[in-house]
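During the second year of the project, the team shifted from modelling isolated chains to modelling whole assemblies. The rationale, set out in the original proposal, was that interfaces cannot be judged from single-chain predictions alone. As a representative example for this report, we include one of the complexes processed in the last quarter. Its constituent sequences, exactly as entered into the pipeline, are reproduced here:
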Amino acid sequence: MAPKAYYSIHPKFHAAVDCIIFGFEEGELSLLLLQRDFEPAKGQWSLMGGFVEEGESLDDAARRVVAELTGLNDLYMRQVHTYGDPGRDPGERVLSTAYYALVDIKRYDRELVKAHNAHWVKLNEIPHLIFDHDRMVQDALRFMRYQATVKPVGINLLPEEFTLTQLQTLYEAILGEPIDKRNFRKRIASMDYIEKTGRIDKTLSRKGAALYRFNREKFDGNFKI
Amino acid sequence: MAPKAYYSIHPKFHAAVDCIIFGFEEGELSLLLLQRDFEPAKGQWSLMGGFVEEGESLDDAARRVVAELTGLNDLYMRQVHTYGDPGRDPGERVLSTAYYALVDIKRYDRELVKAHNAHWVKLNEIPHLIFDHDRMVQDALRFMRYQATVKPVGINLLPEEFTLTQLQTLYEAILGEPIDKRNFRKRIASMDYIEKTGRIDKTLSRKGAALYRFNREKFDGNFKI
DNA sequence: ATGAAAAGTGTTGCATTTACACTTTCTATT
DNA sequence: AATAGAAAGTGTAAATGCAACACTTTTCAT
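Output from the structure prediction step:
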């Protein structure tokens, strides 16, 4: 067994998670940010975060923190990076692990968000954030963009059923560049895990647009390597 | 200011770094692993790791730990992931951040490695490692492979000057598949940041092979986005 | 009846990637 | 001195993937 001193001669640190919560609305990506009405850094903007508790994994902590703010427990989340510079939190030393989360912006709990004084802010209108949260956002954005080019994580920003126009607008927002409609639809047509539901959405156009859905079974079947 | 209780009501944890140290020899990737002659988990195999100390960033801790074992202070290193499940270390709770490092296997300090009872182990001969170190290795390998397809990080596994055959063998080892010699050389020729030194290596063939070197300035000039 | 607004639909050219085999050079051996 | 062996070095053609491009259909509101 390990001698007791093996651990105890080393310092301990607070551990936190900070969450970069992405939403998609009006053709643009947004982040859910807190206008802090509490200390520390009261009055400034920050990411939603929280301390890791005893017996709680990092993933669980991130999930809890996001659920506290959104009421949603089933979000797509990924760890981005851990920030551990001494002095990154001017109060005490805290190691913080950043996670990004993808939210269908129609689903979050408006009461909870209001209670936390949180707001959806469009990507290009993001204010300066406290500590090293600016850098966390940059890193999370880069990582999410990369993931989106590799697998269809973006789907988690849309409702269960979505039109191809919605999907294209989403990917244009993620990649930050316009996409040719015909080429885009050709590519989607070749992905059998994005399937027509047979239903039609009439709210977004007079003509109506076919609704599609992501079929996780087909995707996992095709992509497990 | 933050009330003192803001921090102090939350638990603290040990923080560690574990390092996946890659080398390249005889056409294969290897890892530098410890056969532990110390507790905990004496007798088992593990990654080189260490606790994060007061006033030391995670990156610094990883750099220190790798230098302790290899004597090398200038290695290419990247953070991979942080592992925080309660119980991942059966002794006490420890949050561990994994880093990978790339070593020119000709350069490390053999005395230090021997003193730590560490050994280079080929990728496909890696034994079961303690705790969650197996998973760390898988994650690091995937991340390093991805990085190698995007930018020439592999160069850090070779000496300053190298032949194109060495470089090709390295990339075959990283990607795990054979590469066509002519296509490979065509691609390298199009990268002006890999430049001929004018020197010739005569140790690896009778004919002799041109030595090349990575020009960081040209690379940064081309790739800064 | 008409106009507006979004949905939907194929083809061609271009660029990139892949497949493929022989010659050159040198030295160690006979 | 001749030769065999071993790795270095070199170009072309086919195929595939990617990018560019414009008009018709449908429906509802006016």
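The first strand of chain A starts at residue 12 and ends at 25. The longest helix of chain A spans residues 133-150.
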